[in-house]
MarR family transcriptional regulator
Amino acid sequence: MGFVTKEPWLDDDEQKAWRSYLLMNRTLETHLERHLQREFGLSKSDFEILVNLSESESGRMRAFELSRSTQWEKSRLSHHLTRMEKRGLIRKEACESRYPEIAITEQGLAAIKECAPAHAARVREFFVDVFGPERLAVLGEVSDEIVATIGKHCDTDCPPEVRGTS
Amino acid sequence: MGFVTKEPWLDDDEQKAWRSYLLMNRTLETHLERHLQREFGLSKSDFEILVNLSESESGRMRAFELSRSTQWEKSRLSHHLTRMEKRGLIRKEACESRYPEIAITEQGLAAIKECAPAHAARVREFFVDVFGPERLAVLGEVSDEIVATIGKHCDTDCPPEVRGTS
DNA sequence: CCGCCTGGGTTGACACATCAACCAGACGCG
DNA sequence: CGCGTCTGGTTGATGTGTCAACCCAGGCGG
């Protein structure tokens, strides 16, 4: 064994960087997620929804808008919203246009107001500050390039939900 | 609304870079994962296990070794291994030492041999090549720094499973 | 010998994601 | 009108991850 992934596809330096990246990613993600979960009882998904709602003008959005800005598939969104409603973080309220609007509740607002600073502080400590301004700027650029590259590629041979929406 | 996450915690440039990174991450991950899943019927998790097994000397490892190298918690690993065994990708075989060894099967070996090149090619196309050698090297360094930083932080106040194992 | 801890591993309950199927209204077109 | 089809949204089945509890053997102090 030991030969399978060693084909000329990725040379040693590339392998190493890629694996460092993967590890960093997982480490950071699990750290942030566990922090949110344990200190505030919110999952990453909850957080994402609440951020979007709280950044909207009125604190209320249609589900498909959330679906657009989070890039979740609609069924995931639907399931998660019903769970969040059960926990009192959001409310689905009827409006004239047949489809319910998703509104953040007092409780949801309180939750995100409480946890956002702590979360941001962690992002700063473990990510932003370690990068430093110049390297961070570079990362931002490369990230956009990668998203664009994948988007371009998918225009031709992928199912619709991956394609760029911005 | 719109004020919650705008506290002085992350300034505009930082926000932007962070969100670009998050988006890139999600996009890349889902793209790679869907590719593996649709072309080869393997999940990212399956792939990770198979890579580890195929890179070992004998194609067989104890579960706790897998747990160390993947950094999964043991229950996740146990669940996933039983599922993989049901699908014929691995086998748990008894050995002298009370605990079973996890062995990759012919089928599992065939699966990873088939998909590894295609996967690596995609990593190259969408990640390695977009970065380019210099920026990629930088990313590798920063990644290691971040992992180290989180590791250091967790030595003092985190549950054991996050702490560095290398 | 006993009690107790620790390490490797499994199990069950539950939260979450994904897929395919479905529903209802709107829109277009013959 | 009748028909297909698109969009916004829900539902159920199934696969996956997480947490806490447990099991069992080995070691160790009494």
